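Need tokens for this chain, all 390 residues.
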Amino acid sequence: MFLASGLLIVAGLKAVSAQTPPFTGALTLEPGLAIGKCMTASSNADGALVKIQACTYSDSQKWTFTGGTVRLFGTKCLDVKDGSTADGTNMQIWTCSANNANQQFSYTRDNRLAWTNKGKCVDLTAGNTASGTQVKTNWITFCACIEPSEQVKSYACTDNNKNQIWNTGYNVKSLPVTSQKDQYGTNNCGTGSSQTSNCQTVYINSADDFCLWGPPSAKSTVGDTEEKQVAWCTKSGRGTRTIPNGALKGVHFVKTPNYVQVTGVGDFTKLNILQGDEGGELDNRGADGRGNPIGGLVFGNTFGNGTQYHDWTSFISDTEFCFRACTGADATVNCNHIYDVMGCAWVCLFNFELTILELTCAKEYAGELQVWRLRELRREQRPSYGRVRH
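Here are the structure tokens for all 390 residues:
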């Protein structure tokens, strides 16, 4: 690994044809290692180096995937300096030109930027998350990439190089109408509330400020509507549906250094789930990489105002729910998507009692929480929904 400050390119990916993220429009490219940092061009001039900086959502951080290129400022492309295949080559922007091999990139299923057919990936130098760190290219030995016809299948990564994860995202204050093709609902949901809303943007902040996914139509099973699930929230004013009074019977909220989690019990037939439905899993991947629901976005304020959670997993049935949203280098591990049939008790370790609790956990070990502080909500802090029992 090249150790000088910068973004790198890494080898080992072979014969990758152009693939794009599931999300559309102008996107931020955020290193998986850091919260609130974005891939940024130092200027709009040819040869401007690409670094990470605090996310400001300016034009220098709005990347668009078009025709196998990653574009900025409309006419500039992410570019490998001098087309060098040496590890540690700086990334820059340059005026886009047709069939320029130095400007061809694929976005892989596991959120990496691969230099098309060159066996290299964009890398955050030495995992340095300080603002100003350059983006470079480096050697990659851990992925066997798939051909376009097999894009819905997964491919194994064995080295798990976290310096090469680049999540695509949006500014919570300027969301698109839709974030994915064939999306059922919308992401730019306004500031009202409606029980017929098809908003597909949710928030997780506390035991009395969170959202759940639920079917848009009454008496639906989770499995039959997973691609179309919409947001139901405890608070109004976000353009979503609101969780009806009496739906929530108990809520537990947990904050750890790497994720937030809300679990609970209730009557979720009030969220259109068919009585007796054992439910199912919803997550940001889905079987085809688009997630369930398609176009679903998750935000919160725990790790910084308007943080987008790129990795999250949720289960809900007619009587129980759990929702975990993860950040940091181990986000894909802490928000695993492979236990579809195991349910809340397995994936979101915690109890499901008829109480309302908030916990702050300083550490976690092997998925179990070491609780350092427990705060039970005072009577005046309790939400107005549901039944509370001590």
